[in-house]
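Objective 1b: paired records.
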Amino acid sequence: MQLNVLDASLKDKVKRLQSELGVTLDPAGETLECTIDPTLSQSSVQHINDTIELSATDLPTTWYLLKRLANEQDTQSLTIQKNFRQVGMMLDCSRNSVPKVSYLKSLIRQFATMGHTWLMLYMEDVYEVPEQPYFGAYRGRYSQDELRELDAYAEDLGIELVPCIQTLAHLNQFMEWEHITRQYGDIDDILNVGRPETLTLIEQMIQSLRQCFKTDKIHIGMDEAYNLGRGTYLDEQGLKPKVEILHSHLENVLQICHKYQFNPIMWDDMFFSKYSKVESENYQIPSGVQLMHWDYYRTDYDEYDQRFKERQAITNDLAFAGGAWRWTGVIPHHSKTLYTTLPALEAAKKYGVKDLLATCWGDEGSETPQDAVRYGAVLYTYLQYHEHYNEEEFDAHLRLYTELSLADWLKQEQADLLPEFSIPASLNANPSKYLLFQDLLMPLFIQYTEELDQLTDYTKHLTQLEHYFATLEAGDPQVNHYYQALVGALKLRWRLPLTLREAYEAKDHQTLSTIANETIPLLNRALDELLDARRDLWLTEAKPQGLEVIEFRIGMLKTRGEGVALRINDYLAGKIEMIEELHEQSYEPLPDQATKGVQTAIYVRQNTMMSRNKISW
């Protein structure tokens, strides 16, 4: 579609979004007449003769309407109503993968045309604090200039960029510096909130962000500090109830936020867990604090309903954070995103929750590409402007915004969520992770390997996925190549520990020789391809800091494979009487978990997955 945009300011914005909107600027094109009025109850667009008349509540809704009008051939008019005041994403910048400024700008453009109105950057220690040189050192932290650049870029397109930080716990990488732990640490990754220097640190953090962001919002975190007050705080201040320590610290942080004209948002779980007596004490969240309930695990509407009800008893300003699942290992779980989001947002509507986010955590080193968040972003867009979920309509939205169909997106998860698995019971299962990384001689999940081998022809399944991604023309070629290389390596490695053990127990020296001298070298070439694909994609999406961890992990697989081949050949040559590791007894790896077995088990702890011997102290 060719557009003639008369308003100079709007014209500059449309020019920036031409590619994402699917339009070009042309004085001879359709004349765009645009009105933005936050008081409108509905937004609409209609194409009349050579004029496009558009009325919207905000800029992102303007872009959403234009995007659909320009790309849906049968659409000449459209009227929509938002279900929520704000919808957006929270990008995890703290799990080794700090999005490059250029890549983050591309996401901002995409999110803007989806109608997203805010975007949070989850930054534990990856932003510049001038007084704290070790804060985010070697981690790819954003400079103040970079954050100001991103803030201005987002604001120009109508998106409010909001910092999400930690002011109580989750500062584990900062605490890796021993002198920092001695100065500020309580226990685990929790700050000693009884020390004046801790409040000085928090003020330095917030003061730095005030210089970078125009928003009046700041997310101060404060989640999962379950050992609060049980370390050096206990030694210095004595034993106090955790909730009492939390309340006192919250009041101190609020004062700092207000000093720098920030209205804080905080997580809710410290008030609703076995560690808190909030409900019986009838505690009320202080005014001026928005409580954000996070939950991306449940698939049952009634459970969300109950949890929203409980939280509204202590606050009249409740927000919600769901999840766009990219933190189960090496591939995303889009079905988990869908099955948890639909009931959650239905309950949110019932309780009048206005502000929504989809978190995009990158636990265990951001192995899954950042690109995966776009599925959840489109889902939140769709549910913002539609009253009920319709799969065909959602599929059309995915095609509109990503070129990929719903079926294409779901292929990304199918090395985990197999057709033979039961949904939703299997939504967490991540065999692609632990079968890729478990040891060849002492595999922790050998029982699950056997179970999967009996359940399905997993090699055939992975071969089909490999072909699918190799021939997929839609979407990003770099992303498609990553998934192709991943399943290609997994295809060669997943059963290898079992095949090796079977051959050893059968004294099948020919198969053992083939494994050592043909299969493992072939696997290492596939691992090279996987590493090359992941490296290329990482450097497109993120700063280089953190990539070394991915290189360590895949490189360790190659080195270990070479070592295993040496052990096998020594055995075959009679240099050793036996391969001692293969005589280790196998045990259930997750004996205390309710969900175990290949169809339901999730395991993401990298070090223990690769070895039960300690890799690092």
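Objective 1b, second protein:
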Amino acid sequence: MSSTPSSPQTPGGAPPAPQKSSGAKIILWIVGIVVGLILISFASCAVLGFYAMHKAKQAGFDSDLMKKNPGLATAKMAVAMSPDTEIVSSDDNAGTITVRDKKTGKVVTMKFDPQKKAMVITDENGKTTSMTMTGEGANASMEMKGPEGTMKIGNSSDKTPDWVPVYPGSSPQGTFSASSGSEQTGSYTFVTKDPANKVISFYGDSLKSAGFAVSNMTSNSDGKVGGMVSGEDKANKRAVMVSLGTEDDGTHVNVTFSIKQ
């Protein structure tokens, strides 16, 4: 049983899932592909390999552009892969591409700067969202800033709030943080050689002593212990959830937290 990062619970329960338009989903899908490949390309363009370059050229794109500006090249490929989007215009020298959603008619412009490892998305109303990459490989991280707030993914330098218990000897990985309006959320993972029951006890006791209302759950499948600890501090509008599972290399732990101002 392994744990994977999930959206943090907000105090008082899980937040309702945001309803996005089909146009927004399509654009986010394109951006997701772009960002994913940028993470790889900035680390080493060589990992794309000859096959990817050949396919890019078959699709009508210049493989030299993939080396020069992988974000722009990938955006072109992503648009071509979607039957619901089309390229309105593009400028390889300026590093820009304007895309239209065929269903809604909405238009966005993306500008890529490979030197700064940055990308700016501007919608038809002039609102902008910026993405900036830092680091490479396992140390890569991304920060996104827009009208809805700020989000950081990867090797974030943000410190965990002091009200979130930190397991002794743990080294947080896969960090995530976001802020929107009055709410801040975050998560991280780590692996420890300590047994799952010890981890569950630590978080349960630590949260209780900090004034959180705590509930926990454990499971045992073929000798592999897993579980969940959730804590809520209604007075301070704070919530912490810890999920964990046992693998061959140790206990895998995912910690999520949120606070409303």
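The chain has a mean pLDDT of 75. The chain has five helices and 13 strands.
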